[in-house]
Each structure stands twice: as C-alpha cells, then as structure tokens.
Amino acid sequence: MAPPPLIFLLMIHGVAIVMSIIMTPPPLIFLLMFHGVYSADGGWGVTYSSSHICALKGSTVTIKCTYKYPPGYKITEVFWMKVDSSEAPDLSKDSEYSERIQYLGDKQHDCSVRLTDVRERDSHEYYFRFITYRPEGKWTGKPGVTLEITDLQVESEGERVMEGHSVTLTCKSRCSLTDTSTFIWFRNTQTLNDRNKKLILPSVRRENAGDYRCAVQGHSLTSPPRRLNVIYPPDKPVISISSSGVIVEGNSLTLNCSSESNPPVHNYSWFKEETSVGSGNIYIISNIRSDHSGQYKCKTENELGQNNSTVTLNVLYPPRNVTASISSSGVIVEGDSVNLTCSSESNPPVDIYSWFKETQTSSVGSGQMFSISNFNSRLSGWFYCVAQNEVGSQRSDAVSLSLKERIGDSMFFH
Question: Does one domain contain both 144 and 47?
Fold first, then answer.
C-alpha cells in the first residue's frame, strides 16, 4: 500500500496552492506565508483635508493631513515639499520657508503643517512625503494640495461719481469671502462703521471722496487704496474785494472770484450789469472812476454746470463842481435879506458846508444855504463856500455881494 501523501498548502499573496507529495510518514499540513509589498490600496496613502486652499496674503494657513502605511513599518523621516520629485528637498530646510513652516504632525499618522505670513510666491502645489526604514517603504501623497495666495481689492462702478448719486464699493479677492465674514472699511486714515462686504453710499457727498481700503477681520491684510472722486458743478462763487479801505476815485481795485467745484472751474467771466468786461478769476480796475460804480457779476463754469454771484461797487469821490449862487432876486438894497446857496456833486453826499468872505480867514456861516438879513454896505464883498465829505473837500468860485442905492432914478453901487 502506497504511503499517504504529504500535503502542502502554499499561500502566495493570499492565494492558496495545494501540493501533495507522496511520502511514507503520516501526512502533515504546512501553512507558508510569503511577505508582499503593498500598493496604495494595500495600506499606503496620504489624505489631505482639502486639495485646494485659497488664502489671503499675510495670513496663516494650516493644512490638515493624515497618512497610513502597512503594519510592521517604522517611520524614519517625514517632510513637506513643493516639487513632484522623490529627490525634492524638505521645505523646512529651504530659506524661503524655514522661518515660516511648522510641522504639526508626528511620525505615526498625522502630517498636518502650518505656514505663516503667506506670500503670493507661495502659490504652489505641496506634497507630503514619508520614508520608512525599509528601502521600498517610501511614499509621496500625490496629487498634493494646491495653495493659492491672493490679495484684497476694492471694486467700484467707477472712479468718478456725481454728488447726490449712489455708489457701491465691494471688497473682493480670488478667495471665497462669504457674506458671514466681518469686513473692515477705511477712508483715508478713518475707520468706518460698516462691517459688510459691500459698502453702500446711497447719496454721495463731497466729504465722501478719498482713498478707500478694506480688510477682513482676523487677517492683517489690507487692500490697496481705491480712489473715490466725487464730482459736482461750481458752488455759488464768492467775490472778494481787495482794496485799501474804501473804494475811492483814483485808486486801483482788484476783484477776486472763487468757487468750489470738481473738476475745477475752467472758465471765469466778468460782467458789469449785462456787459462783458473781463475773464479769469481776477478782475483789476486801475485808476477807478465814479462811472465804475455799479453791479458786477462773476460767472463760473466747469463741465458739469455753472453758477454766478454779484457784487456792487460804490466808488467814493470828494465834492466837485462846487458852485456858490445868490438866491435873491432883483437889486440888493440896504435892509434886504440875501440867501447864498452852495451846490456840488459828491459821493457820499456833502456833510459840511462852510461859508467864507475873502477878506476874512474864519468862516462866516455854515449850511448849504447861508442867509444874511438886514444887508448893509459893511457886508458887501466876495463870498465863497467849501463843500466837504469823508473823502475830501472843494471850494467854489467867489460871488460878489454889493449894496445898490437908489438916488432919484439912478442906481449907485457901494
């Protein structure tokens, strides 16, 4: 009788192969296990929390990561790299990253990493790699994590907005800034109260003009400034008069016209009554005369509209054309009353009239009309008046007062 067969159960990569050998001893069964190299499906792998991360420039980015490997392996080296190569260097030894990268994981299963103060040049695909003590026990997590670094921008419908119109400014970036984020808005150096992604100005005023910047709370990044230019037509012009004191005939005079507008006034026009007399924001009158008195208008224009203001010039001058006249009629005889009247032209009106007799140094009377009652020969002579206002004075030519005496049918003068 043949000896019972010797049966072998051969396990190769999980496949059982039964082999029998005829031997004389009683049958024995052997289970042979041959170690194999696992594929990714067999226990090797790296799992990233996200395959794409978008971050604001200057912020801190944390990449969550786990890795696995078959039992029986011991991890000897772990690191992150940004080049898809088995010979790529460890980022912690790269001068661009060494001060900013921090490995948060371990040499078991956690491969998380933190990168601070991210910059636009940090935009790359990053890979985690681990190495075991066995030559075949190396693994790189591919595809890796794509890191995109972006900045903030303030976006508006345009750089120019008409005063009174509405405008919306939006804080934007290539990253997804959700409506639940808290935003910070700045105008020039002032922090605004609005905390929304959109800054809405429903009725823009000129005070709203300036450089606007935005930031996201919790991040140090601030957007570059965006200029908001508020435009409006000229305000009512202000006319100033530059002269030394009152406007007196013979002096010079400068009128200055100013008007706030954006864009600036490009055309200034001057009118006296309705007659054009000049252009430019300054109008000069040299050797001013009384006929320069009147109403002057300055008209200002820019591309959005026009406006105007008026000013009245009152040119002062001393008395002129001063005349003394005798207001009595007929012949002056002894005992009559005689009235002398002084007339003149001036601005302002004469406030003092004085009467003089040429043979005397002191005045003999005052007032526009000078009356002499009970005229006699001692009062005969040449009389004149002096008219005076705040600007100056002038005297008249002298008029003669003489007594006439009747003797019979003849007249005799004394």
Answer: yes
Query: Which pairing describes strands 29-34 and 5-12: parallel, antiparallel, or unpaired?
Result: parallel
Containing domain of residue 93, as a range?
40-150
Q: Are residues 134 and 48 in the same domain?
A: yes
Kindly report, residue by residue over 123-180, the tens digit of the pLDDT. Answer: 999 999 999 999 989 999 999 999 999 999 999 987 899 999 999 999 998 887 766 7
pTM for the predicted model, two decimal places: 0.66
CB 254 within 8 A of CB 283: yes
